[in-house]
Amino acid sequence: MKLISTAGSPTTVTFKEAVAHGLAPDGGLYMPIDLPVLPVSFWQGLRGKRVHEIASLLLKTVISDEFDEAFIDELCADAFNFEVPIIPLTDRAGVMELFHGPTLAFKDFGARFMARIMPECKVSNNGRPLTVLTATSGDTGAAVAQGFHGVEGVRVFVLYPEGKVTPLQERQFSTLGGNVTSLAVNGTFDDCQRMVKEAFSDATLSRDYNLTSANSINIARLLPQMIYYVSAWSVLPPAIVLPGITFVVPSGNFGNLTAGLFAWKMGLPGVRFISSTNANDIVPKFIENGSFEPRASVQTISNAMDVGNPSNFDRILAIFDNDHTKLRGFLGAAAVSDETTRDVIRKVWARHRYLVDPHTATGLEVWNNMHQLPHFNNSYGVILSTAHPAKFIETMEEAVPGETRIPERLSALSDKEVLSKHIPADVSILRELITSE
Ligand SMILES: *Cc1c(COP(=O)(O)O)cnc(C)c1O
Predict the structure, then answer these.
(1) Least confident of 117-126, 153-162, 184-193, 290-299
(2) Reduced 3-state DSSP string for the chain
(3) What is the widest separation between alpha-carbon atoms in the chain?
(4) For the whole model, what pTM was predicted?
(5) Distance 82 CA to ligand 1 centre (A)
(6) For 68-80, what is the mean pLDDT?
(7) Is the CB of 161 under 6 A from ligand 1?
(8) What is the pLDDT of residue 143?
(9) 114 CA → ligand 1 middle, Å
(10) pLDDT digits (tens, 9 = 90+) for 98-127
(11) 141 lines ligand 1 (CB under 6 A)
(12) Which numbered atom of ligand 1 lies nearest the CA of 391?
């Protein structure tokens, strides 16, 4: 696979190089430039296959020039060992549950793949371990920390805004210890993201300590997120698939949506996309009026989407040749308030006896409002359920008291000790921690 930076530098890199660097040296994001367009027969051949088999077949078409096919098979069997069911809600729409991995959120797909492929992508031989820096608004940290925990030759720093993730989210990444260091930053998610970017832009630090990113800016996070879009296409009956599927994607940094667009670029037939956001509506505003105005994030009950400067925006623009009109003609997007989100959780429970988490609820609301539009109205809606409702128990209790069961995997965490170091939103402190091995 060959990739180039969205910031315009003409140098191409391999997948391994892009994974090792995370961000391109010119500050841009790596974009694949040679994604194959696969024929309908390829997609049809995936019917009846298991999730990890779909993963292998798909990923081999893009990275088998750099990895053994047997290695890819093994990696996929190990990383994608959980189901991705689609729960029908109406005869026109279903919820695709992406939360059956170990941390109960879709980020397990990206993180589990990345943790297994990253040690193969190391570029330097300076004897130091890879240092993974990741900023999280909640779920990324959990998926990355658990994905990498105990992986040899890698250490992980998780930065998160203190007090702005739920106690359970915090425990998913801050109780592991070992090669995982969690940093409670006195600031916002955007501060955390900025600190990570500043550390990377220090070329010496970055080289000497083999810095790399596990955020959705890393291409290794995005490729495996194509899998479930493809899986949905392969498990839904042809009568549903043929008129088309609209994927509704609750979005924050827009990595998930970008992965879906990659699958579309690779020829997945008849798919369309709608993205839902909370009050952090930078992308819906952009689609509406063509002006991109990042701003400080505001806190909402769908906190994994509290992003004021979506890091994958440039990738999405690049997919549409930086043409606002093209993007607007294809992609739907709308924002949902916290009040409406709670209301949706209540209504879906009342009508279908089905619990959705606040992120998924934004998707359901937007689908309800947009599925009649001409561009979407003959398609089947697949709403991506990005997390298990129990991860947002406070909000669930407010909306539908007493109904949310906490899975064992989560409840076991509440006895564990939080090991985080508390630091100010200052990159020099992060630097000290990185260099004081
Ligand atoms: C990360 C996350 C999102 C947003 O995904 P992006 O790829 O950043 O757009 C939505 N919901 C949940 C539960 C998440 O953890």
Answers:
(1) 117-126
(2) CEEEECCCCCCCEEHHHHHHHCECCCCCEEEECCCCCCCHHHHHCCCCCCHHHHHHHHHHHHHCCCCCHHHHHHHHHHHCCCCCCEEECCCCEEEEECCCCCCCECHHHHHHHHHHHHHHHCCCCCCCCEEEEEECCCHHHHHHHHHHCCCCCEEEEEEEECCCCCHHHHHHHHCCCCCEEEEEEECCHHHHHHHHHHHHHCHHHHHHCCEEECCCCCHHHHHHHHHHHHHHHHHCCHHHHCCCEEEEEECCCCHHHHHHHHHHHCCCCCEEEEEEECCCCHHHHHHHHCCCCCCCCCCCCCHHHCCCCCCCHHHHHHHCCCCHHHHHHHEEEEECCHHHHHHHHHHHHHHHCCCCCHHHHHHHHHHHHHCCCCCCCCCEEEEEECECHHHHHHHHHHHCCCCCCCCHHHHHHHHCCCCCEEEECCHHHHHHHHHCC
(3) 59
(4) 0.90
(5) 19
(6) 96
(7) no
(8) 86
(9) 17
(10) 999 989 999 999 999 999 999 888 777 788
(11) no
(12) 13
Q: Locate tokens 């955020």: which residue?
A: 215
Tokens representing 173 are 């990444």
Has residue 347 got a pLDDT over 80?
yes
Q: Quick check: 410 and 275 in contact, CB under 8 A?
A: no
pLDDT at residue 216 tops 80: no
pLDDT value for 142: 87
Ligand 1 proximity of 251 Cβ (cutoff 6 Å): yes
Determine the distance separating the centroid of ligand 1 and the alpha carbon of 255, expressed in angstroms: 8
Per-residue pLDDT tens over the stretch 363-377: 999 999 999 999 998
